Amino acid sequence: MPNRITQLFNIKYPLIQAGMVWASGWRLASAVSNEGGLGIIGAGSMYPEILREHIQKCKKATKEPFAVNVPMLYPDVDKIIEIIIKEGVEIVFTSAGNPKIWTKHLQAHGIKVVHVVSSVKFALKSQEAGVDAVVAEGFEAGGHNGRDETTTFTLIPMVKEQLEIPLIAAGGIATGRGMLAAMILGADAVQVGSRFVASDEASSHINFKQKVVEAREGDTQLTLKELAPVRLLKNKFFGDIQDLYLTCPTKEELIQLLGRARAKKGMFEGDMEEGELEIGQIAGLIHEIKPAAEIVREMMAEFEKAKKEVLTY
User: Fold this and answer.
1) Do 222 and 186 share a domain, yes or no?
2) What is the pLDDT of residues 240-282, one digit of tens each?
3) Do both 227 and 262 map to the same domain?
4) Predicted model pTM
5) CATH code, domain with 124
6) Measured on CA atoms in the order 174, 230, 147, 107, is the torsion positive or negative?
């Protein structure tokens, strides 16, 4: 099903696996790419040399295109960019920063650049910066999020109305029907995160994967807006945050409670009580841990079935 995104990335399906911290290593990225989507290595939780290792292993595991996601707020971004260029990565997704900083430099080395945004304003700024495509992510998404709380199905048509470059929808999409709905609203492709957390190949801890499939409606909430808005599964740590809010805390007190490596503690090391558990609202619709290839096949089969059903209305 060729369109602007499949042609831009030279992939079979307009289905992209999000570059999630502590979940998106080379095993997940290569599995998704081998099945026809675009797999992404999440560099946000990796030291530069660890990222190099993942890129090299991914190149051995797949001959298909894959990407690296680079959150620009992390340290050593210059070293990460240097490794990406030296290792011949062809696609980079940037986030959490100004797209003007690295876009032209990456493109000068033949790399396609996509930037992740949460508003029309920043989608247009990304287009002005010269990126090849934009991911517009609604506040249903897991992890760090936009402050305006604009939902995906409100954001996508508003961005589509003003954007000229290809548009990828993200946030709250984990099924073929959700994929079709996003594309009917104007997206050229979808980016899926939470569904791939509950995959065999995700590098996240099995305790976290199991917690995701056990989640139900209302089990996640956006919090810590004074720092960087993040959607979390409710657990003891989340309860501690809520208790602290009752005291009208300062920003410094919130930072002290968050501490260091809180996401690693929960998502990678498996501490379901004290860890930060980043996942999207769509977790309530995820009921099974399964291979990434099977997730891609199921989503695409449901997408095609739903498309035929829509045509009969």
Assistant:
1) no
2) 999 999 999 999 999 999 988 899 999 999 999 999 999 999 9
3) yes
4) 0.94
5) 3.20.20.70
6) negative
